[in-house]
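Final report, closing paragraph on structural work. Over the funding period we assembled a curated collection of sequence-structure pairs, and we close with a single example.
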Amino acid sequence: MLPNLLPGGNPVNDNAARARFAQLWGTADLPATHGRPTSGILSAARYGYLSGLVVAGVDLDDLPDPTGAEAALENTPFVLSLETRRSAVTERADVVLPVATVAEKSGTFVDWEGRPRRFTAALGETGMLPEHRVLTALARQLGVDLDCDSTTAIGRQLADITPWAGARPDLESVLPAARPRPGRGEAVLASWRMLLDAGRLQDNEPHLAGTARTPVVRLSAATAAEIGAQDGGRVAVSSLFGSITLPLVIDDLPDRVVWIPMNSPGSQVYRTLRAGVGQVVLIDPETARAGTPGAGKAAAGKAGQ
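Its predicted structure, as stored:
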């Protein structure tokens, strides 16, 4: 996630930091080049530049381009999945290694203040191995000793890591995006994840999932009136790739902004629309789409441009 940093926030292009970690890890040298971010890994895999991937606990629908991530897995010669349940990754993996759930292992959570909160296994003798033992065993087969057999060993290594105290690395400079200017029947997409949505931790728990809020589309009163939509009616949010139709709630939003849940039942933005927050999408009442032949297709094409 941070391919320009070593543990503890140490910049990978700092000679002293690299030398310290090379000594800590017992290696001759560490490369000064940045690694790949998630998007870079998936892009390299998709176009055949990687011979293998190790994927642990990733839901492809959480990624900005789930379809592209599936293509990356399909085009990788060898995929190893570490998982606790069946997923889109395990379906495409060459080898799946079941690993322990949180209740079956010891470890440490870090709270929002950066404070470590250690915990022990609630369920013992289940026979399931935690990820650190699986990765340690795999590394030994490759001739590398990670020394991560136990949480005690991991804690000892973490204690030896000195947090970076020098100047922070410069962030990459990017030009601001042009301000979107949606026209009539269009809106800027706004979204976020609900506390209870289509997340995988609700698998096989319909009673908890049943307490989630009903997915809706939200528009300002002026925007709803502009497209002829009524509060409680159904509105379609469309892109070039697909459409999400939900009941409308009139809410306090800026005009020509539409909000839908990021990943709730019937509203999977990345999977269906392949659009991100801030992009322009098409909005129109479901009745208008059904009553005008080809309207949805033409509208989706316009929104995808």
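The chain has a mean pLDDT of 89. Residues 5-160 form a domain with the Rossmann fold fold (CATH 3.40.50.740). We thank the funder for supporting this effort.
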